[in-house]
Amino acid sequence: MKPATRSFALLLLLLIGAVFIVTPALAQTKKHKKTRKKNKKVDDDEVIEPVEEFEEGGFRKVNLDVNGDRNADVFNYYRVGEGDESILLVRKEIDLNFDGKIDVIQIWEGGEMTREEIDADFDGRVDWKDYYDSGERIRAEWDTRFDGFADLVRYYEGGVLSRVEMDTTGDRKMDYWEYYQGGVMQRSGWDLNADGKIDKWGER
Hints:
Layout: H1 3-27, E1 51-56, E2 59-64, E3 74-79, E4 89-94, E5 104-109, E6 112-118, E7 128-133, E8 136-142, E9 152-157, E10 160-166, E11 176-181, E12 184-190, E13 200-201
Antiparallel strand pairs: 1-2, 2-3, 3-4, 4-5, 5-6, 6-7, 7-8, 8-9, 9-10, 10-11, 11-12, 12-13
């Protein structure tokens, strides 16, 4: 694994851990319908519910305060409808580092997440995108240089890594490929003249 890829993978693992920390906390919250104004002064002995629910833009929005600082950190959007349709999650936004800015956006369809976008370095730009089909990840796009271009793309079949494409030079053209079978790399190839085609198999 390339050094840049290794460092980025470590960062992603830390972020994934943060997301899993958020989930159990949400399960312990008690739903309560109320409206709270931003920056409202609250007495120390006043109880603040960790959940807010209200209608917004045709959706039922549920805000959750995970770290108890009286500011929402997780925003869930549900389709407004009848019966089961009214409880279907369509979008989730998460503030991972509690700075008031959204770091993770999840898109849901039919009760399943179809796309997840993450701002890994908290600069306000998406650096990592995962795409899902029927609950399985099919593609992951990473911007390891944090320049707005996905220079590392991983493809999955049946939930198992099948191919990797990488821009190793920073010219925004893929020039390195890895092919996998059963999750094990079988061969790799390089584009040496920037024409988008493999010129050499194996080591560069």
